[in-house]
Hints:
Keywords: Hydrolase, Membrane, Signal, Transmembrane, Transmembrane helix. Residues 1-23 form the signal peptide. InterPro entries: AB_hydrolase_Est10, AB_hydrolase_fold, Peptidase_S9_cat. The chain crosses the membrane at residues 371-396, 417-439, 459-480, 524-545. GO terms for molecular function: carboxylic ester hydrolase activity; serine-type peptidase activity. It contains 14 helices and 13 strands. With 550 residues, the chain is of the alpha/beta class. It has 2 domains: 2-26 and 367-542, no CATH class; 53-204 and 248-348, 3-Layer(aba) Sandwich (Rossmann fold).
Amino acid sequence: MVFRTIATSAALLVSLAVVGAVAGPQWNPVPVADHLQPATSDTAIRGVDAGRAAEIGSVGEHEVRETVLTVPLDGTEVDALLRQPLDDRGDPLPGTPGVVFVHGAGTGRFAEAFTDIASALASAGVTTLVPDKRLDTYSTRERDYVAMAADYARSVDVLRAVEGVDPARVGVYGESEGTWIVPVMQAEDPRVAFTILVSAPVVPPREQAAFAVDNYLRNTGVPEQVFRAIPRAVGMQLPGGGFDYVDFDVRPWLERQTAPVLVVYGTADPSMPVEQGARRIIADTAVRGDDAPVTVRYYAGANHGIKVSDETADGVRVQRLHPDFADDVATWVQGLPGTATAPPRIAGDTPNQLYLAGPVPQPRWWGNGDIVLGAVAAGAGLIVLGPLVWAAHALVRRAVMRRSAAPAPRLAPGLRRALLVLGAGSAATTVALVVYLLTVARLALDYQRDDLVVQGGWVGVRLLGVVTAVAGAVVVLRVIDARAARRAARAPAIASVVAAGGDVPDAVARRAAFGVARGWPAHLTFWCVVVGAVILLLMLAYWGVYQLGI
């Protein structure tokens, strides 16, 4: 029996591994072969025209006045915070350039977003406007970047009319998700004087998400088998529909740029394709031959928001803007057009992007998230349904049918325990996998490593899966043995009765018919648990629990 169990378990594990390998796409990102080499580590912006040099302010040079404005939109309105640099008399500094800020992902309230950089630029002599993000048309499922660009364009119009602002020198600053919006704004309104793209994904959101997940997982130190889940999760149609924006391509809008572009990345940002993004922006803005010069800066140790971690005097770690970032942006904006083409085009810290962001393979059979969730719910429901019906039947039988001579439902010898382990094990492994992935996601987003959790947790999930598969093998063997015993017991009993010229007694017929299960509750429980467990095992195989290097 031991040898049969080992052999059957091995065959089942190999089958699950094969199913998991062929049921969905693999993950094989392409390494970056040609790395960018900044001309210098100095990020300073040069090329300020001699005639404008006296106008270039530095961070902290001016007092700043803050005013809350209302920006009318189509069908609604949003508040916006205006920061104006003041002259020595306390009046708005005349002839200043202006910058409208476009939010990244999230709620985007002006009270919380861009507070450091918008204040710093204003103190250097640049009028800034940070509007609230419009949220009535923005949700996790539904986003329209072209429509959002039209909404933010209203803020540009408002800033152009502000006292002291030179309307011909108003540009747009976008961060992260906002950098999919900013090129649309400039393409639709060539009067936008410049654009600043900070931590720009450039690639479509789905590709950026897969790239970010890959980097986060590598930083967390997860086992190689976990990476197979990336295309299967990011590439599928997400549950509930929507999410059309995940395939938005900003490159046609980049090709229509006519204004100078400042591209900024932090080299400690694992979520962005920092080299690939800069290359694409440079290439795409040059497609039509229009004058859209690009300046690229990389800031050492800076994260997604171009912030670095500092330790205060009392030992508390805080996030602050990179010390050179605000001054560089202020100089570039105030020094245009001379700063737009000043060498070096690419400067700062040396980036090190390991893999290219690229198209995400699409799952075939499990490409619909609703089907995936439905299958898990169906599998878990069946595992619970069968035993629940049997238990209810037993209660009714005990209360109402005490005098019944009908035999009680039962399973074949040895099958009950194996079936229990199969059902409970498949459910427990599914729960353990979900908990493991959520824990790894939390560690990854917090930039933390915990080998005991990451490595040990994966081993634990896979061991649970192996135990469940062994239980499945035992169930198969018990079913084979029960059916063989039924055939062996029934044939001689019936033959002896027939040879004696008599009828087959009911008791003999019932005993001969009892194989895997006796009674409909037992049959229902058996098939519910088996079918439910098979569904969950196939799902676990799909998500990589049973990988054997196949």
